Amino acid sequence: MSKSPNDMRTPLGKVRGLGSAREGTLHFWRQRLTAIANVPLVLFFVGLLIALNGADYETTRAVLANPLVTLVLALMLISALFHMRLGMQVIIEDYVHGEGAKLVCLILNTFFTIAVGAMAIFALLKLAVGG
Amino acid sequence: MTMSIIHRITGSALYLGTLLVAWWLIAASISQDYFDYVSWLFGTFLGRLVLFGYTWALLHHMLGGIRHFIWDTGAGLEKHTATKLAWATLAGSIVLTILVWIAGYATRGM
Fold first, then answer.
1. Which residue of A126, B14, B94, B104 pairs with B29 in a disulfide if CB–CB is 3.0 to 4.6 A?
2. CATH code, A70
């Protein structure tokens, strides 16, 4: 943090609310926000699985192609995957101490969640258009 | 203490579990044969065991998350209250898991 000659802010003013990672409580906030969203979205998914238990292929496809179901499942996937990426990030930061290994794990964490999300949402869209 | 690490373990299990969700959706989007194969796989004894564990991990993590929301308000942090909340989370998650599976079997009609 180099100090420019015209910077009138005190060191405290610069870090207040941000912390050393310069993102302040953003991580915590997003964790809680997605956690709140996950409760109704995941409960809907559990209800859907109960309803579809033992259902044949055609019924399952028809239900999954319903626009409301597609939308809620897509939102659930986005919220849950975002939430778990944040959670796994904390676990990695707590237990992986080597800088290189930590970086690799953090990158893989992001790749994994985005890959799972892309595949699942692609399948949902395919079902939605009847493909 | 123990519940904190369980929250992380169930979270990690759910992390890997999303592969099963994606797999199921992909199977439904591919073909009847592949969907039937995955349904059969999930329906085997081992498959059901994994899914039962998955259900418990999900509900335990959800109740644990609600416990965190209570703590966020500043309530429930006293030692004996926190211990009670921990037991309630564990008991609640087991009861809810069993209820979900009873509902599942009731739908299936077997």
1. A126
2. 1.20.1300.10
**Residue A35, pLDDT score:** 97
Residue boundaries of the structural domains of chain B: 2-108
Helix and strand counts by DSSP (H, E) for chain A: 5, 0
Closest CA to B22 of A118, A65, A68: A118
CA–CA separation, B40 and B60 (whole Å): 27
**Could you say which residues from 16 to 75 on chain B have a Cβ atom under 8 Å away from some Cβ of chain A?**
18-19, 21-22, 25-26, 28-29, 32, 35-36, 55, 58, 62, 65-66, 68-69, 72
Please, which residues have CB within 8 angstroms of residue B8's CB and are 6 or more apart in sequence? Answer: A87, A91
In a domain, A18, yes or no: no
CATH number for the domain whose boundaries are B2-108: 1.20.1300.10
B28 burial class (0-12, 13-18, 19+ CB within 10 angstroms)?
buried
What is the ipTM metric for this complex?
0.93
Chain center to CA of B38: 20
Contacts of A124 in chain B (CB under 8 A): 25, 29
Q: Is the pLDDT of residue B22 over 60?
A: yes
pLDDT tens by residue, A7-65: 888 877 766 766 656 676 888 999 999 999 999 999 999 999 999 998 999 999 999 99
Task: Please state the pTM of the whole predicted model.
Answer: 0.87
